[in-house]
Each structure stands twice: as structure tokens, then as C-alpha cells.
């Protein structure tokens, strides 16, 4: 619910830092990586995925990841 610019939506987020997850949608779908950062206010995570032999941080919405 939005009221006066505030978002009171409750989000079920059951992940921890450094947990390995799978990306389930978007250009990085099917990549796996470890959660590097969690931003609860923006409902985003930074996941380190292996691209071209290097770990690269990718910013994703909460709904774009799932547990392995």
C-alpha cells in the first residue's frame, strides 16, 4: 500500500549474505552466484556471478532470485 509516498508493502525475503542463489529471470537467468549485498529499502540484491572467468556484481530485484 502506498500512502503519502511511503511504501508499506511487506516483502518475504528469506536470503542471507554470501548465500548462493540462482537468477530466475532477466538477462542473467540461470546464472548462479553469491549474494554480496542486500538493500531492503530498494528491495534489491547484488549477486556475484561468474562471467568470462571473473566474478561480476549484478544488481537484481528480490523476485529475480531463488534458492538453489
From TrEMBL:
One of its GO terms (biological process) is DNA-templated transcription termination. Residues 20-47 form the KOW domain. Transmembrane segments: none annotated. It holds the Pfam family KOW. SUPFAM superfamilies: Translation proteins SH3-like domain. InterPro entries: KOW, NusG-like, Rib_uL2_dom2, Transcrpt_antiterm_NusG, Transcrpt_antiterm_NusG_bac_CS, Translation_prot_SH3-like_sf. The keyword Glycosyltransferase does not apply. Coiled coil: none annotated. Keywords: Transcription, Transcription antitermination, Transcription regulation, Transcription termination. It comes from the Bacteria. One of its GO terms (cellular component) is cytosol. This is Transcription antitermination protein NusG.
Amino acid at each position: 500500500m502506498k500512502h503519502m509516498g511511503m511504501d508499506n508493502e511487506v516483502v518475504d525475503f528469506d536470503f542471507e549474505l554470501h548465500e548462493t542463489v540462482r537468477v530466475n529471470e532477466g538477462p542473467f537467468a540461470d546464472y548462479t552466484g553469491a549474494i554480496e549485498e542486500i538493500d531492503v529499502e530498494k528491495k534489491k540484491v547484488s549477486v556475484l556471478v561468474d562471467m568470462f572467468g571473473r566474478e561480476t556484481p549484478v544488481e537484481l530485484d528480490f523476485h529475480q532470485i531463488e534458492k538453489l
